[in-house]
Amino acid sequence: MDKMWAGRFNKALDKEADDFNSSIHFDSRMYKQDITGSIVHAMMLSRQGIITNDESADIINGLSGILEDIENGKLAFDMDAEDIHMFIESELTKRIGDNGKKLHTARSRNDQVALDIRLYLRDECEEIFALLLKLIEVIKDKVEENQDAIMPGYTHLQRAQPITFAHHLLAYAMMFKRDFERLNDAVKRMNYSPIGSCALAGTTYNTDRSFEAQRLGFDGIMMNSIDGVSDRDFCIELMSCFATAMMHLSRFSEEIILWSSWEFKFVELDDSYTTGSSIMPQKKNSDMAELVRGKTGRVYGNLLALLTTLKGLPLAYNKDMQEDKEAIFDSVDTIKKCLSIFAPMVATMKVLKANMYLAAQKGFINATDLADYLVKKGMPFRTAYKHVGTLVGYCIDNGTVLENLPIEKYKEYSELFDNDLYNEISLETCVAKRISAGSTGYESVKEQIKYIAEFLNK
Ligand code: ARG
């Protein structure tokens, strides 16, 4: 195919170099945004008297036809084209003749591609927002069903203090809420239009960049044309938001995998989100959660790859920047897939409350509460801590637990111990007495549910 830029060359591009240079096999997915941007560009050109109304109408008709034909499968991408921008422009000229050649007045592929990626990512982020909200909603439902499910809370993966499963899940709801807000902030910052920056320096035509920006739903124009075509910081920001959300999904996955093991047995994943083994008939594996955890690596990798690609680039556009797309597209695809599998996997997950409770009864997770009991009776915390530590040691040596020690034994350590201690260290009391804001206490959990519900209803 003849290159649009062929004029100053005497020889055609080497075939392998041509393939190496081409990006259509991945940027074709931006065809809709490319056409939308071009339609608005044609409108602007005629409004400003740069082309005639008839020429503009002709271009817009041609572009609309191309969009329709791509969508209904009548027009296939030419994989020999250099990129999606060249493909659409040459298809337009094929269809409407010389008027098609006027479309590229007062713009360059540099601002065109910077525009297309923004439009594309804005659309994709809409879907990601919806998926994040869906996941938070699923978590909230699980939370509501599990307000009475007492389990051990962990630090260092050692049983630490009793919590409810609802409280534990709410922690994830808060994280995904922030992921939503973080992404929303990044999208807001991305939502300024680069079109009209042209190659780098702007143009001698009397263009109206604000018209284009407004028609394309931007909050304004990028104020510096060199910045407009040079930076991909919005991709970096989005990818970093995706990486953070994947980190949260991955931690959640890790816990689900642990909880599904025989060692924990706190949850059971639905058959529809687990797989068997080809050799071990008893196995039920958490493949989906493992894959989400695994795919987190590539989302981190994409972020680092683009950061590295950009770090040495002189302003303005360099072809290196074509590498932005595969990285960000892969991150977008990956997080979308992960979120859409994760929500139903959590929704269908069975919570084995009795096993959680059993685990909470082991591991002396009421030891802090016993120390607090002494403190409330006037003992300094450090002294109380020491007494309880010694008592735990005694229990371990004698194969018993704090709940079963006779009061006489307690009295050997301190006269402050009385029979009311047994109620004080029951798991239910330990949870119920956590009254501080944000705690695992029943009231606090209700507050947290309300907080999430208000966020979802906004
Ligand atoms: N395919 C190119 C990219 O993705 C489009 C911009 C090309 N601009 C240029 N001056 N060669 O970056």
**Count of alpha/pi helices:** 19
Q: Mean pLDDT, rounded to whole units?
A: 96
Strand/helix succession: HHHHHHEEHHHHEHHEHHHHHHH
Give the radius of gyration: 31 Å
Trace the largest sheet across and list its strands: 1-2
Q: Tell me about the biggest sheet? A: 2 strands, antiparallel
Low-pLDDT residue intervals, each spanning 5 or more residues: none
What class would the helix/strand composition place it in?
mainly alpha
List keywords for this structure.
single chain, 458 residues, mainly alpha, two-stranded antiparallel ribbon, 4 strands, binds arginine
What does this structure look like?
The chain is mainly alpha-helical. It has helices at residues 15-21, 24-27, 31-47, 53-71, 84-96, 109-145, 165-190, 209-215, 225-230, 233-260, 287-310, 324-347, 353-361, 367-376, 381-397, 407-413, 421-424, 427-432, 442-457; strands at 150-155, 158-164, 267-268, 350-351. The protein has a two-stranded antiparallel sheet with strand order 1-2. A two-stranded antiparallel ribbon has the order 3-4. Bound molecules: arginine. Arginine (ARG) is lined by residues 23, 27, 83, 109-110, 113, 317, 319, 321-322.
